[in-house]
Structures are given as structure tokens and as C-alpha cells.
Amino acid sequence: MEIETISKLEKEALKKSGTDFTRIGLALFFMIGVLTYTFLSSGGISDNMFLAVAAFIGAYMAMNIGANDVANNVGPAVGSRAMTMTMAIIIAAVFEAGGALIAGGEVVKTIKKGIIDIAAFGGNPDPFIWAMMAALLAAALWLNFATAMKAPVSTTHSIVGGVMGAGIAAAGFSIVSWSTMAKIVASWIISPLLGGLIAAAFLFAIKKSIVFKENKVEAAKEYVPIFVALMSWAFITYLVIKGLKKIWPQIIEIVNTIPLISLEITKKPSFVTALIIGAVIGVVIYFILKRKLSSHKGLENSKESVNTLFTIPLIFAAALLSFAHGANDVANAIGPLAAINDAVVNGGISSKASIPLWVMGVGAFGIALGLALYGPKLIRTVGSEITELDQIRAFSIAMAASITVIIASQLGLPVSSTHIAIGGVFGVGFLREWLQLTETTTTIEEDRELIEDEKNILNSYKDELKSLKYKTDKEEAEYKRIVELYTLIEKEEKLIKSAKKHIKRVKKVEYVKRDAVKKIIAAWIITVPAAAILSGLLFFTIRGIML
Which residues form a coiled coil (predicted)? Predict the structure, then answer.
């Protein structure tokens, strides 16, 4: 029997190691392919080896973004069972790559968030190239470590820390814009708080308007179209603002081909324009869904039945979030790579750099491949290992993700999509704990009253027993009463003990796993300094090799 068990364990270990080797092999194949292509296609450029190595590191960074950051877009949908893991990976990979290639932008800021002053390099491209390589590699290594530890962290903060550390190592502390860094530190608090509050608010509104109603079916038919329309409004607005900047002029040109329509062509959509487009689509979806639900006959009067109505909106939400993420965050992978490419090709340093198609392809396909190979670990963490999610809770988190980014972008607040999504997960979990506590307050009070009553009875039994025990001339009936009192006292003590245990059990209900919260918050706090220290060390290493 023991031999069979050992044999089974060996087979499982071999199977797992075989899968791990396959993942590593595919990842290395992609990175080496990028390195080889870059080296061969840039043969006429001096320092083309630097560019090839930078592309190799950029591919590694892109895969780590896919493995860590994309989980926030699809994790809640998978955790709520609105999508399978395979379906989520396919949808996210396609839309992440599509967002990066279609709407990723033709020009990217070479220094993310303007955190260091490139003038400090004195126009010398060599230390600048070394700094960007160090920043890219440090951010990628930190993301890899965080993914292995199942901690969803901000890729933006990782690259910010990398750039800051390499900049300090290259030109001293004065190179850093500390006011910008203060805003980034503020985002550690702003992002999860906003995400958590908005997610909790939507979950509470859905519970009050539908779940807590006696007739859930009628309430769902009335309010689900409203909530889905609001989601559509928020997501379309978010997509127009964040995902369509690159192709906006072409969209306007196409619209202007329609008779009687003549719109002014602008570089990017305004906030009001995005709101109007989102509102129009939201109204259309409201009437379509209202009509469909009014004729729906298969709904049961249960929370589970109401949950199913949010499945399709969640799938669309995951797809749209992935598209916008690919369009907006691909710069985290390719920004420094584009900067290195620009410095190598043009022999100088620029605050902005054009993005060649091959560089965009490295970012797009690297994110998709990283998600497919290593994404499931973080998807499970976000979807099920922090708090239990259903479709309604996942819907609330998706709403928080879109609305928080819209609000923050208009107010100029620095936020992290990772922190918003995880904050949303925390928010719905803590709301569930609060609702549970308020629902059981009556029970706790009843238990406390019971304990007081039973204590009074217990004390009376003990007093009676004491008086009988010290009586010298006991009769037979009194001896029997003493035995009976011992039994009654034991019974009362057990009853009081049981009531106290019940109160403790009710108070200790935790829908959010505290260990996961501590680990994730700790990872958030140390992301920037960890990436910065690692980047500084890598810069000195690269400089030492090159000089």
C-alpha cells in the first residue's frame, strides 16, 4: 500500500515538473526569439547588442505583467464561476493583445510618470541605456517574485521603483521628482480605499434593492437592467478615455462619412464626449435588457437565480477591462524598451519616443503569453483566496474598477488598477462581515441576556447547595436534593459555556482572510523600495561590466 502511494506521488511530481519545464521552455523560446529577431534586424546599428538584450528583458517584463497584473481583470469573474479558467485566459489574452496593438499608442513617455529628470544624464546615452535596462530587469524580477508568492502588486509601481533606483544610482537623489513620488505613495492609500468603498456601495445597493427583497424575481426585473446599464455607461466611458486614444482621429473620420454628420477631429476624446457615448450605449442596453427580462419565465425566487443574471455582463466586463489594460499598461513593459531603442537608433535621449511595431508586439504578445503560462496562480488568488465571490460581488468589483479610474483620472489622483481591484475584493468581503455582524446583533444580545439569567439561577443553586452541605442533621430528601443540585449546576455551567462560545464564534466570522490581506498590503508597501534597491544594484553591475 505504501509503495503504491509513493509511486503515485512520484508520478504527480514528475507530471508537475514536466509542466513547469514546458512553461519555462515556452517562455525562454519567446524571449530568445525576441532577442534573435532584434539582433538580426538591427545589424546596421552600433550597440545593437544592447538593444537585443533590452528586448530580451522587455519580453521577460511583458510576460511578468501578464502573469501578475492581468489577474485583476479576470480573477473576480473566475472566482464567481462566471467564467472558467480556460475561458478567462483566452478572453484576457486576446483582448490584452488587441488593446496593446490597436490602441496602445504610437508614442510613449520614456520615463514613466516623469519621476526622474533626464537632463541629469547630460545628453549621454550610455548611462541612460544602462539605467533603463536596470529598471526594466529590476521591475520584471520583482514581479516574478511577487507572482511566485501569490501577491498581486502594481506593475506601474514596480517600473516606477526601477526607474527611480537606477536614476539615483546614475545621477544621485536630486534626479528624482519627489513631489511625483509623494503622489505615487498617496496612491497606495487612495486606490484600495476608493475601489473598496465603491465596490461595497454597489454590493450594498444590489442587496438592498434585490437580494433582501421578498420577491427577488420582480426586484431583479426592475433593477438588474439599471445596474447593467450603469456598468455599460461606466465601462464604455472608461474604454473611450483609456483605450481609444490612439485610434480616436480615425474613428471621427469614419463617423464623418455618415451624411449630415461633421465632427471636429481631435487627438483624443474629451471626458464629456466619453460620458455621452457611454450614456447612449447604456440607455440602449437598458431597454434591451428590460424587454428581455420582462418576458423571462425561468427565474426562481432565490439569490442563486439572481446571480445568473450578472454572468454575461461580467464576461463583457472582463473583456473590456483587459482591452483597456492592454492599451494603457503596455507602456510599463515597452516604455523603457522604446526609450532604449530610441537612444540606440538616434544616439540621444528624448522625453518621448516613437514605438516601432516590433516593440509593441513584444509587449502585446509577451503579456498574453505570460498570462497563459503563469496567470492562473494569481487569478485564483484574486478570485477565491482573499474572499469568496459570487457574480453579484464580482460585478461590484468590476464596477469599482471602471468608476474609480474614471473619477481619479478626472481629479488627477494617482491610482493603481491592481490596488483598485484588490481594494474592491477587500471591500465586498468586509461589507459581508459587517452585514453578518449587524444581522446577528440580536442573537448576541439574546445570548448575553440568557447568560445573565442562567448565572442568577446558577448562583441560587450554589447558595442552596452551600446551605445544605453545611447542615449537620440532614434528612434523606435533603441528600437527594444535594445530588440533584450538583446535576443542575453542571447543566447550567454547560449552558453558560455554550452561550459564550456562540458569541465568540459569531464575533470571529471572517469573510476576508486576514493573512492574505497582510501579505498583499506588505507587498504593496515594499514594491517601490524593493524595485528601486534592486535596480540600483543592477545599474552598478551593468556599469561595472561595460566600463
Answer: 444-509
C-alpha distances out from residue 162 to 136, 138, 165, 221, 529, Å: 7, 6, 5, 50, 9
Parent domain of 224: 2-425+530-546
Residues 370 and 239 in one domain: yes
CB 421 within 8 A of CB 405: no
Give the 3-state secondary structure of 52-102: HHHHHHHHHHHHHHHHHCCHHHHHHHHHCCCCCHHHHHHHHHHHHHHHHHH
Q: Quote the cell numbers at residue 517.
A: 490581506
State the Cα angle at 399 between 396 and 401, rounded to 5°.
110
> How many independent structural domains does the chain possess?
2
241-272 tens-digit pLDDT: 876 776 788 888 887 788 767 777 777 788 88
Q: Indicate whether 513 belongs to any domain.
A: no
3-state secondary structure of 422: helix
In this structure, is residue 512 part of a structural domain? no
Q: What is the pTM assigned to this prediction?
A: 0.78
Give the pLDDT of residue 168.
93
| pLDDT 10s digits, 186-233 | 877 888 898 899 999 999 999 999 988 888 888 988 999 999 999 899
Residue 332, pLDDT > 80, answer: no
Q: Which residue has the cell 492562473?
A: 376
